[in-house]
Automatic annotation (TrEMBL):
Name used for this protein in its record: non-specific serine/threonine protein kinase
A single MF term (Gene Ontology): protein serine/threonine kinase activity
InterPro entries found in the cross-reference section: Kinase-like_dom_sf, Prot_kinase_dom, Protein_kinase_ATP_BS, Ser/Thr_kinase_AS
Membrane topology field: Lipid-anchor
Substrates-to-products reaction catalysed: L-threonyl-[protein] + ATP = O-phospho-L-threonyl-[protein] + ADP + H(+); L-seryl-[protein] + ATP = O-phospho-L-seryl-[protein] + ADP + H(+)
Keyword Methyltransferase tagged: no
Compositional bias per record (Basic and acidic residues), positions renumbered to this chain: 19-28, 53-64, 380-434, 442-467
Region (Disordered) location: 19-65, 370-467
Classification via Gene3D superfamilies: Phosphorylase Kinase, domain 1, Transferase(Phosphotransferase) domain 1
Stored Pfam families: Pkinase
Key words, A-Z: ATP-binding, Cell membrane, Kinase, Lipoprotein, Membrane, Nucleotide-binding, Palmitate, Phosphoprotein, Plant defense, Serine/threonine-protein kinase, Transferase
Gene Ontology CC entries for this record: plasma membrane
Lineage: Eukaryota, Viridiplantae, Streptophyta, Embryophyta, Tracheophyta
Amino acid sequence: MGCFSCFDSREVEKLNLDKQSDHRKEIRPSVSSNISRLSSGEDRLKSRSNVGLRKESSGPKDAPDVNIAAQTFTFRELATATKNFRPESFIGEGGFGSVYKGRLESTGQVVAVKKLDRNGLQGNREFLVEVLMLSLLHHPNLVNLIGYCADGDQRLLVYEFMPLGSLEDHLHDLPLNKDPLDWSTRMKIAAGAAKGLEYLHDKASPPVIYRDFKSSNILLDEGFHPKLSDFGLAKLGPMGDKSHVSTRVMGTYGYCAPEYAMTGQLTVKSDVYSFGVVFLELITGRKAIDSTRPQGEQNLVAWARPLINDRRKFGKLADPGLEGQFPIRGLYQALAVASMCTQEQAAARPLIGDVVTALSYLANQSYEPNSAPGHISRFNGDKDERRTGGRISKNEEGGGSGRKGDVEGSERDDSPRETAKMLNKDLDRERAVAEAKMWGENWREKRPERDDSPRETAKMLNKDLDRERAVAEAKMWGENWREKRRQSAQGSFDGTNR
């Protein structure tokens, strides 16, 4: 699960870190001053919602010194907390090093302690970047950094403990006694992770490019609340009139955006591609790269793309572990989002803010996971979903042995392109119908007290006719929105940038 170059690494970017010529000398724990000298400009990072951040300048030629709000620990304290880093305390491994579960003796708090792999080539840089990023950035969907240790040559990070592990633990290689995630939980995890990414891209100033978005870096708190972790590869985004930053190609194979892997040019759209890969993992239950599968199915995006292009095969993209318990229309919409995020051309991908809007809509839809096999659960405001949402496989129609939840063709165009267009239309339609209904029901209360004279009565007759006509038109518009969509459809999504 470690981080490695997507392809051949390019020339290593230079850092203005105070490197000692003799690496055997003891490194003093002056973490904040080292962080402030990162050449990529991390000292300029300011979060709009940061807490406890203070900068001081020691002179016009000196880099500003960042006073980290995180707690400092001695190595002895963390060794005691983890029972001297014994194997029974080991809970995982990341790009930075090994992770151990521990309990702080001073407070009794359960924590996760990440210990730097001193043999790693990039461990010290990752340590500096991660302390900086997590000290300045605060959001419900980012893991909380409690503190750090920089005793001698020891480098450790202390986080809040995530009791449910990583998203990867709940998607792949599940033990027999572990139930797979249901559809609603998957959508909520995706929406929460997207919100964390949105915070980095749109709320931090300058923006932060995560650069290593993957299922093993999404940790789960109680209630499957997702939080992004492992910021060692994070990079400040472009500023001013720059469209990208050029950097060494780093990340995890299978998640890297193609333009970044080929050119080293990094943008926020590179993160959007990685998000799309993780979202496909959530939908399909497959790994981003799986060497145990046949040759044509080892790369998740390459395998999924032709299936997404054919709506008759959408059912094959759903995780078999769901056992058909998913809304067909929800699957269409989720595939539309994943397809747009994993476009080959970066410019064709949506901004993460638009992804958050779409996924928040999906995560808030009502769905009954215990409904009958193959059942298309209706969404809020869509009472005729069972009639027009596509047909179920033959096993529900009374013949054949198709898998539960498989979809046959239907008259309407449910391609990802059209479904993506309809996400915003659905919201507008439901809002308009609700407003029209409320206006129709409360019109007497809204109008002023009327005069029942013949003159006023005549005026009100016309108002009544106008009201009834408006309500009828709103109702007709709401009921016939699918017909309007069919007329404006431009054909099935073919997976190319148009």
